[in-house]
Automatic annotation (TrEMBL):
InterPro entries: RNA-binding_CRM, RNA-binding_domain, RNA-binding_YhbY, YhbY-like_sf. Keywords: RNA-binding. Signal peptide: none annotated. The keyword Repeat does not apply. It comes from the Bacteria. Residues 1-96 form the CRM domain. The gene is yhbY. SMART domains: CRS1_YhbY. PROSITE patterns: CRM. It comes from Metabacillus sediminis. This is Ribosome assembly RNA-binding protein YhbY.
Length: 97
C-alpha cells in the first residue's frame, strides 16, 4: 500500500503524462488489462482515460484495472485514472518514505 506522501509524489509525477489507454464502450477486458500490465512494467506510472461512451462506473473501472494489473490506484480525477506499479526490471521512480 502507498502512503499519502507517496501518492502525492506520484500524482505530481503523473501530472504531465498523457493517457495511453482509453476505456470506451466495451469497458474493461482481459486484453486491456494485459496491455496495461505490460505498459506498467516499462513505465511504472500511467494514465488511463475513460471515454464518455463507457457504460461502467469510473470507480469500478479503476478498481478492475488496478486489481487486474496488480497495480496501485494513485487517483481517479475526472475521467482519468492514474496507476502505479513498481517495475521488476526497469525501476525508474524512487518513492519517498
Amino acid at each position: 500500500m502507498l502512503t499519502g506522501k507517496q501518492k502525492r509524489f506520484l500524482r505530481a509525477e503523473a501530472h504531465h503524462l498523457n493517457p495511453i489507454f482509453q476505456v470506451g464502450k466495451g469497458g474493461v477486458n482481459d486484453n486491456m488489462i494485459k496491455q496495461i500490465e505490460e505498459a506498467l512494467e516499462g513505465r511504472e506510472l500511467l494514465k488511463v482515460s475513460i471515454l464518455q461512451n463507457c457504460d461502467e462506473d469510473k470507480d469500478e473501472v479503476a478498481d478492475r484495472l488496478s486489481r487486474g494489473a496488480r497495480a496501485e490506484l494513485v487517483q481517479v480525477i475526472g475521467n482519468t485514472i492514474v496507476l502505479y506499479k513498481e517495475s521488476r526490471e526497469n525501476k525508474q521512480i524512487k518513492l519517498p518514505n
